[in-house]
Design brief:
Radius of gyration: 25 Å
Shape: globular
Number of helices: 8
Helix content: 25-40%
Length: 310
């Protein structure tokens, strides 16, 4: 009566409405349903996940769950992100039987997603796999290595350092989720240089291009608003990245990684080696897009030796 002024109740045999008028009078109407509706609970089922939370014991030592397996307050979004990421891997990363996968997770943070990658590839699909997480903060590296040892994950390790410090060598898949600003470009270039078959990138903090766009944006009816300029810079940055990856022989898919309620930065670029990609066309499109947008420099383009200015 204070906050709600109407309510409806629906069952298989009756429909009831309660209503409170502004003057305070309340009344209820009831309508019998002539034929009893059949009851079906087929829709009421537990969602099947690639990796269930209960099957990920490393969540606790990484600080995401309590000792009884309950998700800690404020960590639900991170656990949902892990579940979604493994669903993505199951759909897109399908190694050939008998091959050994070498995976690098650049800027891995606490290592939760790195653990998910290892467990999915090693236990769920039975691949021989070596996974390395690269992180600059030594305390996170130490904790992740201890958790990997406790879990008995011999093929999983974490090393301290920057993306640029990671040695060249055989990499089948490279992961870089929420690497800040041009760190995503560093990770992508490392994967390209090492002929990685899959690049899984979720960019963050698109700061590089915005200063190049601001002078022209002042005269633009839309981009003169800061929030629209920021969104435009993000879309332009990732569009150029996608085209540049295609110019290197990758088939690129861009999609929403996870619902915005679980992660503020949720655009994902998933690139897979494909000999059928028209690399020359992609390169030309990248150059034309940059020139049309007033962009004279972009980090991944610079690393690849691509020049936008004539």
């Amino acid at each position: 009566g204070a906050e709600f002024h109407a309510a409806h109740l629906f069952s298989t045999t009756v429909e009831v409405q309660w209503q409170r008028e502004p003057g305070g009078r309340e009344f209820i109407t009831r309508r019998e349903i002539a034929a009893t509706l059949p009851v079906s609970l087929e829709h009421d089922r537990t969602k099947e996940r690639v990796l269930e939370k209960s099957a990920m014991p490393w969540l606790h030592p990484l600080g995401l769950t309590t000792s009884d397996g309950s998700v800690k307050t404020g960590k639900t979004a991170k656990v949902r992100q892990i579940e979604k990421f493994t669903e993505l891997l199951a759909h897109h990363v399908k190694p050939e039987p008998g091959t050994t996968l070498h995976v690098a997770d650049m800027g891995c943070g606490s290592g939760a997603l790195t653990f998910a990658v290892y467990q999915f590839l090693h236990e769920h699909i039975g691949a021989e796999v070596s996974v390395t997480g690269v992180e600059a903060r030594p305390e996170l590296v130490s904790r992740a290595n201890a958790a990997a040892t406790d879990a008995g994950y011999d093929g999983l390790k974490f090393v301290e350092g920057q993306i640029s410090d990671f040695p060249d060598g055989q990499i089948n898949a490279l992961v870089a989720l929420h690497a800040c600003n041009t760190a995503t470009d560093d990770a992508a270039f490392h994967g390209i240089s090492n002929q990685a078959h899959w690049l899984i990138l979720a960019p963050c903090c698109h700061k590089e291009l915005r200063p190049q766009l601001e002078s022209a944006a002042r005269e633009d009816a839309i981009l003169r608003h800061g929030i629209f300029l920021e969104r435009h810079a993000e879309m332009l940055t990732d569009s150029l990245r996608g085209l540049l990856l295609e110019s290197q022989g990758y088939r690129v898919k861009v999609f929403e990684f996870i619902s915005p309620e679980h992660a503020g930065r949720n655009t994902m670029l998933l690139a897979e080696k494909d000999v059928n990609v028209n690399t020359d066309k992609a390169l030309q499109q990248a150059i034309e897009l940059a020139r049309a947008s007033g962009v004279h420099s972009q980090h991944l383009a610079n690393l690849l030796g691509v020049r936008f200015i004539q």
